[in-house]
Structures are given as C-alpha cells and as structure tokens.
Amino acid sequence: MIECPRCHSDLPDDSDFCMYCGKSITDTSIVESPDVEGSQLKENPNKNGVGILSTLVMVGTLLVFDFGLGGLMQAMGRDYRWVFVVSLVLYLVAIALALLSLYIDHREKLQGYKPGQNQGFAAATIAFSILIILLNLNQVILA
Ligand SMILES: [Zn+2]
Fold it and tell me: What does the domain layout of the chain look like in residue ranges?
C-alpha cells in the first residue's frame, strides 16, 4: 500500500492518481502545507500566569483567613463565621481565575499556540477550592 500525499488515503501500489481526491501520486512538485497537529503548535510567547495566580489566591486565603484570622477569632472567643464567609468569596474568586486561565489556554490553542503549562495549577485550584468551600459550609457557616 502507498499513501496519498494529500488526503492520506491508503492506495494500491500501482496507483498513479488518488482514487479519493484525484491527486497525482507521481507528481511531487506541489509542496503540501504542513499539518496543524498538536506537535506542531507554535511556541506560546504569552506566559499565562493566571493559573498560578489563582492558586496563590487560594493558598493565601486558606492561610490568612481560614487558619489565621479564623483561628485567631476562635481563640479569642469572638464570632468567626464572617471570616469564613469572606474566605468563601475569595475562593470563588480563585475558581473564577482558574476558569479564566483554562479559557485563555483554550483560546490560544485555537490560535495555533501551545497552551501554557498552568492547567495543573488551575485544575488544583478548582478542586481544592470547592473542597474547602464545602468543608467550611458544612463545619462553620451552616453549623
Ligand atoms: Zn488523496
């Protein structure tokens, strides 16, 4: 079997023309445009930092509000629920940033660029933020 250089159909060895698209098999003068496959995406000049930013917002909220202020208010015997309500809003911001990051990657891929390397950060932010929100809702805000 041989392969059609234009449509990549399998053809009998003695073919002169492709039976599917009509391309001449012996004519190699036409340079085919390169395939746009995953491996041939352009290097992305735009470093998408939104994914990492979303993770920083999440970790910062966890340390400053949930552990820091929340723990402090609790230790002082004050009402600490509002702290977790504020942190809830910040986790939603982190999730929004992570979704934005995934959207930016998706859009750049459509434009032929390699996506940024931050999908892991974005995915982790979404997963952990939802987990912490559920824990806070269950144990603090609705308790
Ligand atoms: Zn063909």
Answer: 1-33, 50-141
10 CA from centroid of ligand 1 (Å): 8
CA 37 / ligand 1 centre spacing (Å): 19
Residue 140 near residue 84, CB atoms below 8 Å: yes
CA distance 11 to 4: 7
- pTM as predicted: 0.67
Cα distance between residue 9 and residue 20, in whole Å: 7
Confidence category of residue 142, pLDDT binned at 50, 70, 90: confident
